[in-house]
Amino acid sequence: MDPLTLLAAAKVSYEALKAGIAVGKELQGMAKDLGSLFDSVAAITRVAADPKSSLMAGKSAQQIAMEAFAAKAEADQMMEGLKNHFIGEFGIAAWDQVLAATTQIKKQQKADALQAEKDQEELMNSILVWGSVILVFVLVLAVIFLIVIGLVHR
Q: pTM (2 decimals)?
């Protein structure tokens, strides 16, 4: 996705968070918007680190690089504003806890996805092996049957 589209998604989440904060809504009640903002900022960071991966037809290299930089800078400002509000309300230790928990959860999700992929591969291998065994067994039975039928008709 291009940086401007990612930035638009981040802005939607950020504005929802700001509106919720303005009416006194608890941050815990805005977990979906928080998660969406974190995900959008992470995607913008990845694109900004490697802007050529989001090449758009008709855009110059300078335009792509500037859009990536501007999107990253604006996303950083949004995260800084959210961080400041969060720290003001819950303290820096709470912010550090959220970041540590986010990192741990992402690592666990990645490990779970890799394990699920490995389990799927093992299942497919087992199906292939057992399918081959059954096929060989059926072929052996068929050969024996044909031999027996051939002996009976002699």
A: 0.61
